[in-house]
Amino acid sequence: MHPRLRAVSALTLLLVAGACGVRPPAPPVPLAEPVVWPKPPAEARVRYVRSVSGPQDAGIQKSFFGRLTDALFGKSDEFLVRPTGVAGREDLLYVADPGAQALWIFDLANQKLTKVGRLGGITLASPVAVAGGPADTVFVADSWVKKVFLVNREGKLLRTAAETGLERPAAVAYDEGSGRLYVADSAGHRVASYGPDGALLLSWGKRGIGDGEFNYPTHLALDRSGNLVVTDALNFRVQAFDREGRFLWKMGRHGDGSGDFAGPKGVATDSRGHLYVVDALFDTVQIFQRGGAFLLGFGERGVHPGQFWLPGGIFISGQDKIYVADSFNQRVQVFDFLRGPE
To answer: Burial, 293: exposed, middle or buried (Cβ in 10 Å; 0-12, 13-18, 19+)?
Structure first.
């Protein structure tokens, strides 16, 4: 065999072997009618829009050289494996994927997908959470490396944003008004705040069930007033704090009814102040009114549009577009909150 053909064959085998053990996502299911909640004849408040498992789902087409590479070496594996965190900014979608040990950057304006597996000299091991940063940057937390990185839209490391004292960073939230970065340190049962230079400003919490105490905090979100909302996972509740870590309120309880929690994960708020909590064990997203009253739930266990399998993080845009990391369905699902009367 010609040496060049031998090299191509060997590389092809390596590519095929490297894809083994990673299950490709299921093909999209055509919709016969819109998927909405609540079901008709009630007025719809949430509508399924689409699912994103890879670049084509986001409208990103491969370049000529990308198609040529696929033709020569086989189709490359450019799809989500186990997404747990999601964030967006205008034409950018960021996805934390510990299954792929990577941060994915879907750049819609430039028709480009970037898979980031190394930052500086560090290989990502368990990138579990993302949050939009200044301009077109993103913070990504790696729970195994025990660091939070600031990355630009090209996937290049700008700086290490947080590392001091972290045991297992599980979630991040960025406050543009103050420039503070908040990190949920799950194993440390606390929340920490860092300045623009990465210096630790303050931290609060310890393991317990009291106000301001935690039992494995896993997700964070900032509401429209700048208050920090924390998923206190194994206390089966959500707690809220001001910018200085002062306790404001709490809600939630362990149970199996509407409005109860079994495995609370991602948390977010929309333009009307509604609180959204993802529940991985219920395979649903529950929506609560400002005062904590249960409003609506959407989703169920399954693989079809609008169904979930152990969902994790959630992000809501300024236009009330809802992004949910549907972890074991290997996709991010997108929904619209349909503004209507309260």
So the answer is: exposed
What is the distance between the alpha carbons of residues 112 and 154, in angstroms, rounded to a whole number?
9
DSSP 235-250: GTEEEEE-TT--EEEE
Quickly count: other Cβ atoms within 10 Å of residue 155's Cβ: 19
* N-term to C-term CA, the chain: 72
Higher pLDDT, 63 or 3: 63
pTM for the model stands at 0.88
The pLDDT of residue 246 is above 90: yes
Going through 22-84 in order, the beta strands assigned E by DSSP cover 36-37, 46-52
Q: What is the mean pLDDT of residues 153-161?
A: 96
Distance CA 328, CA 119 (A): 26
- State the amino acid at position 284 in one-letter form: T
CA dihedral 68, 70, 71, 73 (to 10 degrees): 110
Is it the case that residue 334 has pLDDT exceeding 90?
A: yes
Assess whether pLDDT exceeds 50 at residue 3. no
**Contact predicate 313/266, CB 8 Å:** yes
Residue 19: the pLDDT is 39
